[in-house]
Amino acid sequence: MKKTIISVRSNAKLARQLWGEASRIALRTLKDLTLKYSLSVAAGDLQFLDGRWYVTHSGLLQVASRKGCRGIRTILQERLSDVATSRWVFKATVYKSPESKGFVGYGDADPTNTSPLVRGAEMRVAETRAVNRALRKAYGIGLCSVEELGWLTNSPSPAGESAQPVKPSNSNGSSNGQPRLRDRLCVLIRQHGLDPNLVKAYAADFCGTPTLKEASRELIESFISHLATSAKENRDGLVCKLNSYSQPVEVKQ
Question: How far apart are CA 70 and CA 54, in angstroms?
Answer without folding.
Answer: 24
